[in-house]
UniProtKB/TrEMBL annotation:
<keyword id="KW-0496">Mitochondrion</keyword>
<feature type="region of interest" description="Disordered">
    <location>
        <begin position="233"/>
        <end position="255"/>
    </location>
</feature>
<dbReference type="GO" id="GO:0005840">
    <property type="term" value="C:ribosome"/>
</dbReference>
<keyword id="KW-0805">Transcription regulation</keyword>
<keyword id="KW-0804">Transcription</keyword>
<keyword id="KW-0689">Ribosomal protein</keyword>
<dbReference type="GO" id="GO:0000150">
    <property type="term" value="F:DNA strand exchange activity"/>
</dbReference>
<dbReference type="InterPro" id="IPR024629">
    <property type="entry name" value="Ribosomal_mL67"/>
</dbReference>
<keyword id="KW-0687">Ribonucleoprotein</keyword>
<protein>
    <recommendedName>
        <fullName>Large ribosomal subunit protein mL67</fullName>
    </recommendedName>
</protein>
<dbReference type="GO" id="GO:0003735">
    <property type="term" value="F:structural constituent of ribosome"/>
</dbReference>
<dbReference type="GO" id="GO:0003697">
    <property type="term" value="F:single-stranded DNA binding"/>
</dbReference>
<dbReference type="GO" id="GO:0005739">
    <property type="term" value="C:mitochondrion"/>
</dbReference>
<dbReference type="GO" id="GO:1990904">
    <property type="term" value="C:ribonucleoprotein complex"/>
</dbReference>
<dbReference type="Pfam" id="PF12829">
    <property type="entry name" value="Mhr1"/>
</dbReference>
<feature type="compositionally biased region" description="Basic and acidic residues">
    <location>
        <begin position="242"/>
        <end position="255"/>
    </location>
</feature>
<comment type="similarity">
    <text>Belongs to the mitochondrion-specific ribosomal protein mL67 family.</text>
</comment>
Length: 255
């Protein structure tokens, strides 16, 4: 059994330990300051990374500067055979853009992140009826010949995409993603926190300033226009995602 003297020493050390912990967390005024966890939650969402596939133009949004192979794959839908990889390869994926919000505006960033993902999902599942038809740049020589033949007969012929071609077209979300960024960062949409609440009903909402760093600054031209609260610059130091490639075989198919 522990003696009374031993119990007394344990109690003293416990009291000193609690005192040290309180001093570590105390603010300048002697009050408990914000914990590291609360500060982390406030800054979470201040940066949104937009990753793009070099070949398929698939896109993935991330709140980290590297992709998580497990969670990132959930953003890629199955659009047909060989349209969704079993794992991500870092030689195919790279940051297309990084969206930066002011310090302390992580809540706004998380709101934008959610809306961008929702719009991406809509593009993938709610495509228009004319999506089944090929675009002129997709016409093959056989398609062009068939169009000319039908035109001579006075008929309008539109080449139809095959199931595989439709899956490839659905995967290519890069241009849609950039257009969505311009829309959401412009404060459009119900509940968009980029648009701060106006002082009165007659005032226009003030838009939070946002900076976008591009890996290729020509990509921003895919959007028709950008609101004045958005500034653009180059992503000088692109951070490539660090994916675990252990066990990946040479020549493994996938994206």
């Amino acid at each position: 059994m522990m003696s009374s003297g031993s119990r007394s020493r344990v109690t003293q050390w416990s009291a000193r330990l609690h005192s040290c912990i309180r001093q570590l967390h105390a603010g300048a005024g002697g009050q408990l300051g914000p914990s590291a966890g609360s500060l982390g939650r406030q800054s979470h969402g201040e940066k949104i990374w937009v990753f793009s596939h070099r070949r398929s133009e698939q896109t993935i949004y991330s709140l980290e500067d590297k992709l998580d192979g497990f969670h990132a794959l959930k953003q890629l839908p199955f659009n047909g055979k060989k349209t969704k990889p079993a794992k991500l390869r870092k030689d195919y994926w790279a940051p297309m853009a990084m969206i930066q919000f002011p310090q302390g505006q992580g809540e706004v960033g998380r709101s934008v992140y959610q809306k961008l993902r929702e719009l991406k999902h809509l593009h993938e599942v709610a495509w228009p009826k004319d999506f089944r038809y090929k675009r002129p740049q997709e016409f093959t020589e056989a398609d062009k010949k068939k169009i000319a033949e039908e035109k001579e007969k006075g008929r309008d012929y539109k080449p139809v995409r095959t199931k595989a071609e439709r899956g490839i077209a659905l995967n290519a979300q890069k241009k849609n993603a950039i257009a969505d960024m311009a829309t959401v960062l412009g404060g459009h949409g119900s509940g968009n926190k980029v648009a701060a609440s106006p002082a009165s009903h007659d005032d226009q909402p003030e838009l939070v300033h946002v900076s976008i760093s591009w890996a290729n600054d020509e990509d921003k031209n895919y959007a028709e226009s950008w609101s004045t609260n958005v500034s653009h610059e180059l992503l000088n130091k692109p951070v490539y995602n660090k994916l675990d490639r252990e066990g990946e075989r040479e020549g493994e198919s996938g994206a």
